[in-house]
Amino acid sequence: MSHVQEYKCPRCGGAVAFDSGTQKLKCPYCGTEFDIEALESYENDTDSGQTDDMNWETSAGGQWQAGEAEGLCTFVCKSCGGEIVGDENTAATSCPFCGNPVVMTGQFSGALKPDYIIPFKLDKKAAKAALQKHYGGKRLLPPIFRDQNHIDEIKGVYVPFWLFDADAEVSVHYKATSVQNWSDSNYNYTETSYFSVSRSGVIGFEQVPVDGSTRMPDDLMESIEPFRFDDAVEFKAAYLAGYLADRYDVDAAQSTERANTRIKRSAEEAFASTVKGYTSVTPETSIVKLYGGSAKYALLPVWLLNTTWNGEIFTFAMNGQTGKLVGDLPVDRGAARKWTIGITVLCGAVVYGLAWLLHLAGAL
Predict the structure, then answer these.
(1) Which range marks the domain in which residue 162 is found?
(2) Collapsing DSSP states into helix, strand and coil, what is residue 320?
(3) Which residues contact 222 (CB under 8 A, 6 or more apart)?
(4) Model confidence, pTM
(5) Does residue 108 share a domain with residue 142?
């Protein structure tokens, strides 16, 4: 028995049939007609069996040359396990991730040498000012968070990032509608037109960052982006003087899944922004195929603050290049209860006032 190709209506999903009168394919459910060639092309594009193909060349970083890492030492946090790199002048310090003391374990060794580094552009004073601004206007912030002593716990850390470059070949199909409304003396009318919209092309991505540390929350690191990579320079150990550096524990190959996700989302958003003039647009199929992908290893500047409130650690991060600061703030529950009661009373007064006005209007 031969296989019969069944075509689906792009508008409603129903099976279409050939209409001998119009010599077109017609959907018996919504009545939409299609040219045979157009629908065949659409079916081939949306059911081609292609999948997203994302292969990366991830030989990022290089090897340390003889004597190049002299003066670098490693520190290990006995609480969270974080391994930190500092220079030989770094005194006893605390972990930038959890705030507990760290222990120097010896000379730095192993790991890849970074390809690039973005040096710190902003100092601790700027980080303190940004944090104070972040506190501003927060009525429910516990008073202890306004104490200057807590701001002094801020530390400058070079965070390991993998920077991904790739070209993306994109093919996306959308279902779109256009709705028009009008009326006459007897009726209100609504006409909805349905469209199949396709977009395809190639878009390039450079230096898509993915942090290489499990100790740094991914959402926190993404929130302080973007970094300006025109400030990136060839790595030299001297840039670490006076700062700490986190050693990566997620390599480039392990980071490709996040890079794929970020690039695919960005590519889809870029192509969707070109579909204009419709009432609604719904993505139907999306194929993103990457090629020429490669990764580089870089250290990027971040100011970190960890402080504890009621046994919970709160982490704030500031981009050490641009000054963008993010982080969740704790809530003073006592102040929150008072605020909630005040809002409730105010809403009750407004409702009572409206009811009284409506009563007066009825009486009139």
Answers:
(1) 54-169+198-337
(2) coil
(3) none
(4) 0.70
(5) yes
